[in-house]
Amino acid sequence: xxxxxxxxxxxxxxxxxxxxxxxxxxxxxxxxxxxxxxxxxxxxxxxxxxxxxxxxxxxxxxxxxxxxxxxxxxxxxxxxxxxxxxxxxxxxxxxxxxxxxxxxxxxxxxxxxxxxxxxxxxxxxxxxxxxxxxxxxxxxxxxxxxxxxxxxxxxxxxxxxxxxxxxxxxxxxxxxxxxxxxxxxxxxxxxxxxxxxxxxxxxxxxxxxxxxxxxxxxxxxxxxxxxxxxxxxxxxxxxxxxxxxxxxxxxxxxxxxxxxxxxxxxxxxxxxxxxxxxxxxxxxxxxxxxxxxxxxxxxxxx
Length: 302
Known about the structure:
By secondary structure, the protein is of the alpha/beta class. The chain has helices at about 45-55, 70-80, 115, 130-135, 145-155, 170-175, 185-190, 195-205, 245-260, 265-275, 290-300; strands at about 5-10, 15-20, 35-40, 60, 95-100, 105-110, 135-140, 160-165, 180, 210-215, 220-225, 230. Helix 10 packs across helix 11 (about 290-300).
């Protein structure tokens, strides 16, 4: 294997995305489908596509490829320069897939993830220690219980920074991350009814890295140990679609950490990266470029 800047251990799925011709319909009603795309998806794959387009060499690992997903996913990702050499093939299942309905403002995901996870660890790989040791940073998804925890432990052992997402404050994976991004969706589903300010303070007490709470199109919160809580407003852009905005934001965080940005500049860069993504659909065909991200940052500073 060639060397990589970022090792990504996470979700890679084949997504069927339907763009609706209007708002998401109410129950027992009807809506037209305007366009349909079958493209790579998942937190890991989306992060890899964005980083690769920013000139970062990425190696993707995690989900096994299945009978339906193997060829289209490997073809698409390798054509874009993503190292897929660690993605194993398991012909005993169709592959990780989902279906997404988007109306421009919201996205609703349907999948078979619960059924696949119930089968145990045979549908994802073990983290690759050699890649973790040699990488400059790791993008780590928390979705493979023992395997994700092991990857975090390997990162600690080899002193490799990792960026993770949507993890409970009392989990070592959250506490030892170089950066942790928690989405509003995760917060609401995991801590229903919780006061966001108090919950953020709970995370602050235990997390050793950059902590970020995102709230969709609203301003986000961030802090690091010993630093005050800060906020950052969302960039104002013409939103076409929000699908994978969170995955793109995490890619921006990884990029900023690779480049040694300050916390504020990491957040600024990640926010601009996600904002550029929201101006197009589907974004995997045209991931945000460095020139576009920098132009948005500079325009907003004027």
